[in-house]
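Usage

Read records sequentially. Each one opens with the input sequence:
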Amino acid sequence: MILDAARAAASQLFLPEFRSVFLKTLGLTLLALVAMWFGLTSLVEWLALPWLYVFLPGLPAWAGWLGVIIAGIGLALGMALLIAPVTAVVAGLFLDDIAEVVERTDYPNDPPGRAMPALRSLVLAMRFFGVVILANIVALLLLLVPGINIAAFFIVNGYLLGREFFEFAAMRFRPEDEARALRRKYAGTVFLAGLLIATCLAVPLLNLLTPLFAAAMMVHLHKTISARETA
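and closes with the structure output:
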C-alpha cells in the first residue's frame, strides 16, 4: 500500500502542475533566504561592529570589516542548511494545489477535497516548520550518542512527517478530530510512510522535492485507507 502510493506520487512529480508549484516554491524560498541573509548581515554590521571597536579600540578598520565578511559567509552556510525547512514552509502554502492535481487526475469520480483556508494553511505550515526544526535539533544532539544517532533522525522525522502530511491529506475530507483518529488507527502504516519521506529529506537536492512528493503520496495513501474503511 505504501509503495504503491509512493510510486504513484513519484510518477506525478514530472507533471507540468507539479513543476509549476516546485518552481514557485523554490523561487520564494530563495527570496526568503536572501532577505534573511541581508537582514542578518545588516544586523551584525549595525550591532556587532561598534561593540567590536569598543572592546578592541586598537583594531584596524579592515579587521572589523573582515569579521563582517566572515560572519556573512557563516550566515550563508547557515542559510544553506535552512533551505529544506524553509522550502517545506513555503510548499505548505501550495499543498492544496498538489492535492487537487492528484485527486483530479487519479480519482476523477470521487468528490474533490476541500482546500483549507489560507490562514489555516499558514498555521499548519509554520507548525510543520517548528516540528521539523525541533526534530532535527534533537537528532543533532543525539549525534553525540553512538549507535542511535542515525536511527534517531529517521525515527523522529518519520513520525512527525508522517503525522503532518497524512493529517493534511485527511483533513481535506474529514474534520480535524476525525483525521487524527484515522491517523492513530493506522499509526504503523503512517509511520512507515513517514520513514520513506524522511529518507527523501536526508538526500541533498531531493529534499527540495520532499514536501510535494510527501503531499501527493499521502493523498494516495489516504484514498487507499478510506476505501479500506468503507469496505
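Summary fields computed downstream for this record:
- The CA atoms of residues 167 and 176 lie 8 Å apart.
- Residues 2-230 form one domain.
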